[in-house]
Amino acid sequence: MAIIKCPECGHQTSDKAPVCPNCGVEIAEKIIKCPYCGEIYLKSEVVCPHCHKSALDNSAATSNDNANTNDTSEVNIEKDFSTSKQDSIVNTEEKKITTLQNNVEHNPEVNTPVLNFNPDNHNITPKKKSNKTIIIVSLIIAVLAVGICFYFYNDAKNDKEEEDYMYALNSDDPMVLQDYLDNYKNAPQEHIDSITAHLQRLAQLDQDWTNAVVSGSKSSLTEYLKTHPDSPHKQEALDKIDSIDWAQCSKINTSDAYQMYITEHSDGNHYDEAVIALKKIKATQVSIDERQAISDIFRRFFISINERDENGLISNVNDYVNFLGKSNATKEDIIYFMNKLYKQDVQSMVWSITSDYNIQKKEIGDEQYEYSVSFMTNQKVEKTDNTSSVHKYKINAKINPDGKITDMSMTRINE
User: Fold this and answer.
1) E strands of 152-298, at which residues?
2) Tag placement on the chain: N or C end, fewer CB within 10 Å?
């Protein structure tokens, strides 16, 4: 291994180095030593850049020369080599000086050291460099780097604070809000005030909820929901109200109570139970509306007999009916019965219902009911000879789900 000058920049380096540490040109196996002038140059160049001779010519020239000219050639080669070497050094140093001058012209603010070039000793002697400029530039760069780092750090910190602020503001967990206040004591004052107010609202909300639960009344829970419609306890309050209404409904145990629960709690926890209970009651319990409907059917029937109104008489009679012991009697049979009551000596007739209805209810289909009815009537007959008579009858009948009489019997009561 030998120390050589880089053929590109003149910087000293090893002939085994992969590249020149100064200019980066490839060195190992990429250089050649001129056999004429001894200058080191790149193999990629065809001829030596200093003596302008090719290394290939040397072998040819050697084969043609004789022994007598060897001494002379050696002397010439040494002379050429010395001259070329000196020229090479001068050229290299001149290039360096030119480069430095160009840098100064393009960058006048840079404090460039002055080089003294002496062609005789081929040495370049730089003046003493000033460290002041280097130190100032280094400090400026360091300050800028710290400033940039601080900017990005502070920006990231602000973004994190904003993110945590929005999360806390939308949270109903007091611990989340308190964590924000503990972690961001230097946050913007409006953020701190907003989170503090939100925390106070949650505290008041919890107190109102505790009071409503302790009260245990439907009115307290209803008022709580009215005051805090978006409370996190909303569903729990609705469930408690649902339980209160169901307990009250079960205690009353009437069709009206169950119907009210079903109407007010369409998605209640006891909705299915209420529907089943209501169905059972409807299957056995005659409502006021049902009782009134049955009363109207028989009142119209007997008024039609009093007035000999055929259409009114059969308006609430089924097409086929078991009537006075005759099965499958038709409407014509009912009209015949009415006309038969009015004998020649009968001037007028008045039927009146004298007792309450005894009604039994039976489910014969899905919410389809049949009614068995019994009651007492009086028949007052005015005759043409100005005499009158009163007879009592017990009526037994059946009404189908369509509100039509399907069965009717009359039993005279003798006193």
Assistant:
1) none
2) C
DSSP line for 306-359: HHT-HHHHHTTEEEEEEETTEEEE-HHHHHHHHHHHS-TTEEEEEEEE-S--EE
pLDDT of residue 114: 43
Percent of the chain whose predicted confidence (pLDDT) is above 90: 41
Which residues, listed in sequence order, are joined to residue 371 by a DSSP beta bridge? 361, 399
Q: Which amino acid is at 151?
A: Y
CA atoms within 13 A on the CB side of 23: 13
Give Cα separations from 279 to 282, 302, 359, 364 (angstroms): 5, 33, 18, 13
Contact call for residues 111 and 127 (beta carbons, < 8 A): no
- Tokens for 143, please give them: 């300050």
> From its phi and psi, is residue 122 left (phi > 0), alpha (psi between -120 and 50) or beta?
left
Output DSSP code: residue 267. Answer: T
d(C-alpha 216, C-alpha 58), whole Å: 118
Q: Is 219 helix (H, G, I), strand (E, B) or coil?
A: helix
- Please give the structure tokens belonging to residue 6: 């880089």
Helices (H) and strands (E) in the chain, counts: 12, 13
SS3 39: coil
pLDDT of residue 340: 93
Quote the percentage of the chain above a pLDDT of 70: 81
What type of residue is 162? Answer: E
Note the Cα 34 to chain centre separation in Å.
80
User: At which residue do the structure tokens 């205690």 appear?
Assistant: 251
Q: How confident is the model over 249-273, as a mean pLDDT? A: 93
CB of 75 within 8 A of CB of 106? no
C-alpha closest to that of 90 among 135, 50, 145: 50
- Say how far apart CA 316 and CA 331 lie, in whole Å: 10
Encode pLDDT of 193-210 as tens digits: 888 887 887 777 778 888
Rounded-to-integer distance, Cα 36 and Cα 85, Å? 11
